[in-house]
Amino acid sequence: MRRLAIVVALLVFVSTGLAQSGRGAITGTIVTDGGDAVGSATIQAKDQSTGKVFTAVTSKTGRYRLADLPAGTYEISVPQLGLRTSRYAKPNVVVEAAKTLSLDIALMPNNFGILGDDAGFLQMMNKYADIKGPAPRMPDGHPDFSGVWLANVDPNPEPASMLPWAVAEWTRRRDANFAGMPTATCLPTDPTLTLPVFYKIIQTRSLLVHLFEQDPHYRQTFLDGRGHPKDPDPTWMGHSIGTWEKDTLVIDTVALNDKSWLLQATWLPHTEMLHIVERYRRPDLAHLNIDVTIEDPGTFIKPVERHVMWQLAPGEELMEAVCAENNRFEENAGLK
Amino acid sequence: MKPIAIALVLFVSGSGAFAQIVGGTIRGTVRNPDGIVAGASVQAKQQSTGTTFTAISGKSGEYTLSPLPDGAYEISVPQLGITSARFVQQDVVVQAGKAMLLDIALRKMNQGIVGDDNAYLAIHNKYANVRGPTPRTPDGRPDLSGIWNANVDPNPVPVSLLPWAADVMKVRVATNFRDQPSNVCLPDDPTPTLPLLHKFVQTRTLIVQLFEQEPHYRQIFLDGREHPKDADPTWMGHSIGKWEKDTLVIDTTGFNDKTWILFGEGLPHTEMLHMVERYRRPDLGHLTIDLTLEDPGTFIKPIERHMTWELAPGEEILESICNENNKFESNAGIN
Amino acid sequence: MRDTFRLLALAIAATVCAGTSVGTHHSFAAEFDITKPLTLTGKVTKLEWTNPHAYVYVDVQDPQTGAVTNWAIEMGSPNGLTRLGWTRSVLKPGDAVTIEGSLGRYKPNLANARSVVMTATGQKLGAASSEASR
User: Fold this and answer.
1) Helix (H) or strand (E) holding A5
2) Which chains does chain C touch, 3 or more C-beta pairs < 8 A?
3) CB-CB under 8 Å, B186 with A202
4) In this structure, are residues B187 and B181 in contact, taking their beta carbons and an 8 Å threshold?
5) A235, A261, B245, C41: least surrounded by Cβ within 10 Å?
6) Can you tell me the ipTM of this complex?
7) pTM of the model
8) DSSP 3-state helix, strand, coil percentages of chain B (rounded to 5)?
9) Is the separation of the CB atoms in B148 and B309 below 8 Å?
10) What is the C-alpha separation between C134 and C131, in angstroms, rounded?
11) By CA distance, what is C78's nearest residue in A?
12) Chain-centroid distance, C-alpha C80
């Protein structure tokens, strides 16, 4: 009886406290469609009137608590995690003062939820959630971006505004179930390097190399002061040069052909005028923040921006991935 | 008897200077169907002793091998890049005080298609004068980083194959190497015997090798890790490197059995393939590679090859997407 | 020098050399027949500057009938051609070219190119000479 009284007293105290500050909370559990807990994932509450964003991270058992939310109406979202789960967004969630709302979330599968379709993103996210430490530096003092990184998607991707021809082309792609995607026939990946997959970075004083499991498996970013070549042949990945702005590496890429499809899950068309600028920062050992600006006056009405944060996965390694060794796509898609 | 390599590198100059020297001479001009060939290594191997002498053809394609002890010689020019076939002529007899004129006509290989190799000879000649000491990393190791114009073994020893493998080779030759995986954009030979451009990027814990054929990169782990137990067999295998003084010894296992190996030969192999490469950088411009390939399921004894790659510092590895317009199957009547 | 001897450079095993199929990265012998050399003259209609092989398409007129056939001519990779001094705009539609190479085995109107010469000037494009091209 006494214990109950204390509990009641505490609840009353807490409620009174909340009522006085006009704040509420949302709590719940996030699971996959198969019922597995989703740990170490970031859930976001965006105030629909002010745009202010609050985040929380799920525990290893998938539980989260978005606390101290001013009363209001929110969009609750969980970004796409790896390639396996779809983005979750629920608008018009009302948070009342002194109340805790219960919201359990089951993430829908993405791309049929095929077993093994992504790099075990959810497991990897959890496995490396607790790495701490300062950002390493090169002998010359610049940040060192080397490492095996688990890339992530932008939690708040803004839709691209495209010229009419590009909208028509994108619609055609969507209506064909994206059957013409270059990677389906083992052609190169998105040159913006924004897939939620593993990227390995090797950095020397004069060169940054990205290695990845999709074709063409590597990108060179020259740090030796060279400029872009005059009249280069357009290529799938373009020509990349990097320059330092204090602790930010600015990577500039031009000379891209028009054949790649951009931005995972969006698959945008583009022209040879495509110009990609990536700004890399490593605020601490375990994180790599990348701001990507994609310009193409022949396609986009205004530049497209993406903001991603990669997570260090030091125990992982890239593995060989030879797409052509048994690719049945064309046969299965009724193209052959 | 192990051949002793004696390099006598002589360029054509006034012939008067050599008129007094005892010993014989072989001289001539090296040409291919496109014209004169500068920068070709012409080797004379004394057939009785195995001793070798080398001269390099000059700007007008002329070479002089002198002074040579009496005897019968095998004269050879190695395969140059991809499109120039190896030249061999045996029983060239040299007598003291006499000069032999031997003009060498190099023939095309792989049908001599324009652009089929990476302008090997032009690149070889462009950087022929690179000089300097071995670059070193902060911890004192040789730094193998750079863009390398790869080369072939000038004296390749023929391979002895087990009967099943010899039978497979008969079929491959008879079908014109039609089923070679690289024809359909699958990975090429994982041994360092392709005379193409390779880029090495070396850090303390890792060397990344970049190249233009599938799968475009190889990682060589220098961080002390061992090969994984029971790894999935892969096209390129798993490579670890250890320093033995100034030699990097790279050990590779974990191969699948799908690649056709040894450039120009296209040999089969099993998953027992084990590759050991010993890399040295004796000076700025050269990378020497001693290669040993063992596969008791295929080769009667280990295969050895010895190559010297040359630095090509002004070149770059370029994007090369085989799948973008591959017509092989259609052209070869397969599809 | 007294007693000079001139040795002919014997073509050792003549059948073995250029005709031998070689296990290189791309086995031309499976697609083309080295025993069927040909020379074609015509006008470029298109250049495909793609991997693994660049293609030039050429309209060739039959001297007797006057009929025009479009031939597909396979060459090396764009990277290989670039390193010989080609650029992707070195051949334009309408250029008159003379091609020497070998006939395709299975596909009609297909050949490969050992050499490409601009018919008007006689200039051989990016000849595989041993001189440094730059």
Assistant:
1) helix A2-21
2) A, B
3) no
4) yes
5) B245
6) 0.86
7) 0.85
8) 10, 40, 50
9) yes
10) 9
11) A233
12) 13
